[in-house]
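Hey, quick one: can you model this chain's 3D structure?
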Amino acid sequence: MVKEKSPYSTSLARKTMRTINFKRTLTKLFVPWLVFILVTSFLIYQQLLQSQTEPLENLSRITISKTSNTIYSSVSNVKRDLIFLANHEKTQRTILSPTLSNKNSLAVFFQAFSEASGVYGQIRWIDNTGMEQLRINLKERKAIIVDHDSLQSKAKRYYFLESLKLKEDEFYFSPMDLNVEYNEIEIPWKPVLRAVTPIYRDDGTRAGFIVLNYLTSNLLETLRETSKTTDIDLFLINQQGYWLLSPQRSHEWGFMFNKRELNMAVTYPSSWRQINQTDAGLFIDKNGMWNHEKIALSNDKQHMFHWKLVSNLSKEKLNVIFNRVLLQTLAIMTAFIFLAFFVCHKIAKSVVQLQYTNQNLRQKSQELAHSKKELETSLEIQKETQNELVQASKLSSMGLMVAGVAHELNTPIGSIQVTLTSLNDDCDKLQKAYLEGLRESDVKNYLARYKEGSAIIQSNLSRSAELVKSFKRLAVDRKCEEQRVFQLITLIDDLNRAIWSRNNILSQLINIDVSEEIEIDSYPGALGQVIENLVSNAFLHGLNSQPKGTISISAEITNSSLPLKIQIEDNGCGISQENLSQIFEPFFTTRRGNGGTGLGLHLAYQLTHQVLNGTLSLESEINKGTIFTLQLPLRIQTKNMQEEQ
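Sure thing. Here's the predicted structure for all 645 residues.
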């Protein structure tokens, strides 16, 4: 005996399966969002970090630039003063005639200059052997002329040895160090930068050197004050990596005391290597944010040395920024994760519900499949019927064309028949007169009437031939649908003679304003069908087949992408706004009970867009008339032309 499942166990199984599906769906939805949020959070972190560090980077660049300009400006002033002293008239007079009087005069001049400038610890004239010939010392802003017995030989000092290599108008700037007197570092420390230039006599012989000991204490203090106004530490480092300027004064001038540990290459080896790789740059490493620029006082490679102007934002200050940005990013990321989980939870719940709903819909869709097939069959039948009606409309148009030609031919042929009958009567009269006695007046009358009758016959035959020619052109165009070059006015005249007269449209006032110079390369059959349908529509619907009103056909060449613009305008009843949107739809007509099929304008629209590669539009206003506008290319490009282009 088979034991049936209880409704409770079945419901529990469904609930369990639904829970499993829900968790699986939630995981599939949430995991991609979680990955996306993590990646986006990283990008947000980078962006926030950049927004926090970029102002500091700009401040660092500004600080370096400002400080660099200060250094170069100070050195430029030193060079200017050096040139001034070397070329001064008293200096030149003294080196030409080194008398005691001239030396004393020069010493007084140097003394006055030293007190006025206040930045040179020493101003000296050293001869070619390295012996001081004149020296001015500045102590407590008081310039003192050193007596002759206290002058020293500087022949072994590095700056003198380098100066011997100088040519005329060249300069030597020594590395910055502490001033040394009698082989001892002067106390208190006097940071100096020695600037040297040679002086020459008129005969081209060197008379020695002018040496300025530029006291850099004020310059270094200015740089130190610049650093204090920001959170950025400023360093000036010599070529060997020793500090000339540092926030920690105890680190300065290590090379003067042979303290190798007071060197950036020892304290920050990796940072120093990266600083030495380029002349300038900004980077962040484990020691903080660094910005540096090379300071070169001379372009002469023989005497060139350089300093490194370096700014540093410490690792501790950077970590404060990093931690603040990290907390902001974590807060944003957590909010997005909770939001994504909430949205995914809602979506997963809806998806599972939708899955069960779809199961029910599948059953109903199977029931609808049969109905769908029946509807498709009905649609195919409707399409076939529509195509048949379109073809019938074309045949009807051809029938109207034939009827129009027959109508037009009836008049000239009738006139010919009447004329021939009259001529036959005249011929009988002439024959009778011949038998009874022919007179000269009878012959003249017969010849005059014969000439008049033959002219009438000739005129009507020409008109009939023209009608047949127009009909033939239209018939061939409609049948072949081949692209050819033709004149627009010829096509419209053919339509005028062959078709519109059949509908008494000529009894209206048809105004044709088309230049004979408009020639196009297109499908004349399709274009003729379009214009015929538009004119017939204007006559039947716009003018309500009444013998009044006007229909105007105009054409012009424009500068648009579709240069040929043809307008068919009537001053009839117009089209209501509710019908404008449906006017080109198939089977739409306002004369359903009066023989209208609703295919005329639809066929015109299809031929314009699909065959003639143009556009068809209209403007209409109740009781004011309607304007149909055709815009066409002057030459339809075939597929081969398009591929070649």
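One thing worth noting: The chain has a mean pLDDT of 81.
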